[in-house]
Amino acid sequence: MKAYRSRMAAVTRVRTLREELARAALANAVAESLRAGAECERRALGRAELQPVSSVSLDALRASLERSQLAAGSEAWARSLAQRAAEAENAARGAWSEAATKLKAIEVYEQRRREEHLRVERRAATYVMDEIAAGTVARRRSR
Which residue of 7, 18, 42, 43 is surrounded by the most CB atoms within 10 Å? Predict the structure, then answer.
């Protein structure tokens, strides 16, 4: 039987590499999103831990207000960082999904071609066997 040779082997290799790269990019995006979320939580906890001013001096009030504003700005920055990381994660997930879909389409196509090749080879083998059997029967009858 003639061996099946894929005509799409190079395309399959390229699509597989692209899918693996997209999966790695997705893993990096997920890790970055988790880091950004943890940083956001850390900064929110730091802001919550700020001690209220116990003295009534103007300098203490100013220092407390400045610390509070810095902590709020830091927390807002961390939230925006987490939001950008989540958006990047969604984009990476979409790119990976698209690459995986393209790879799956090529694999399904190749599987169908392989099955068709097998059917054709079996049909040819059956035809040869039928011809051999018919020829043998015809020779026996002619004797």
Answer: 43
